[in-house]
Amino acid sequence: PKKEVADLGCGDTSLLWMLKFHKCLELLVGVDTNEEKLRRKEYKLSPLVGDYLKPRERTLTVTLYHGSAVERDSRLLGFDLITCIELIEHLDSEDLATFPKVVFGFLSPAMVVISTPNSEFNPLFPAVTLRDSDHRFEWNRMQFQTWALDVANLYNYSVEFTGVGEPPAGAENVGYCTQIGIFRKNMAKAAELCVPEQHGEHVYKVVFTATYPSLQQEKYRQYAVVNEVISQVYDMRRDLLERLKLQDDRDFADTSADAGTSEAPCQCFQPVLTRFSANMEKTPKPFCVGNVFYVPLERLFSLPKVKHLCINIEMLKTLIADTVMLNSDGSAVMVDIHDEDN
């Protein structure tokens, strides 16, 4: 299933930047009221050269919206996770009352993570009342947990509490520096109370969007398949040449003084060819005829990475046909046995 995560009040997009490295995600959304800051941080979320050289397994789209956590936008409905990191303390009483209605009632994600300062920790800071001049309030643990439990009960979520920032020795009673509530939707009860989805409310303004290359996109899948096939073919050829060299060395050591006649080039491959031919129908293996090295597509298709990228051998043939040389019936890749430049 598609994995979608939104960060409300995403600020400098640091959390989104960390999340984009998780390969299971397909949609990352950031929402913030500061449009200028979002535009300054676009570069952190843009695909880099490495993203094209090694595409993701799943396509990832990253979108930044200018908007507020207390506005309803149907493009964020039903996400797997919504995070609100150090957000709620910036809301006035009216917006704080609206916040759960929007996030839990309207957007209704499978999980919500909310963090907020723990005011009990503040005396450990020098001369601190509120940690930020924009904070409207800072709750102690009882206040936050009471609010969170009320919200969870009202919207059919469970909630557990944790935090980050251990207190120093001797001050353990103040709790974590930042308190966190992890809300999980009660899926069974949510199914019973299911109401028709509300669509069409698009109040956020798109500030930035980018789609990362992935193996689900044909051109990147083709690139990955071709690279893997070429790499494997040359590895197999190198292995064959090394075995032949060892055999030649042994033959040379055993050669009598009167056995100096030269042989046709293809004959030096005869032992390998004979060995491969015996098992060809059962398990197709690389072989050579004259100075041409062949790797059956059936053999290549059996490689885990190739099989993962291709549905069947026909798909494999289609993806590599324009890049590598195939034999006349298209059943094998062929390369010159001595062409080391490739």
Summarize the structure.
It is built from 11 helices and 11 strands. By secondary structure, it is of the alpha/beta class. The strands form 2 sheets. Strands 6-7-5-4-1-2-3-8 form an 8-stranded mixed beta sheet. A 3-stranded antiparallel beta sheet has the order 9-10-11.
What does this structure look like?
The chain is elongated, with a radius of gyration of 31 Å. Helix 1 links the parallel strand 1 (4-8) and strand 2. It starts with a strand and ends in a 6-residue tail after the last strand. It is of the alpha/beta class. It has 2 domains: 4-211, Rossmann fold, CATH 3.40.50.150; 218-248 and 265-336, Arc Repressor Mutant, subunit A. Residues 262-281 have low confidence and may be disordered. It has an 8-stranded mixed beta sheet with strand order 6-7-5-4-1-2-3-8. A 3-stranded antiparallel beta sheet has the order 9-10-11. It contains 11 helices and 11 strands. The protein has helices at residues 14-19, 35-40, 49-53, 93-107, 141-154, 187-192, 218-254, 270-278, 297-301, 304-309, 313-320, and strands spanning 4-8, 27-32, 61-66, 81-85, 111-117, 157-164, 178-185, 205-211, 287-289, 292-296, 332-336.
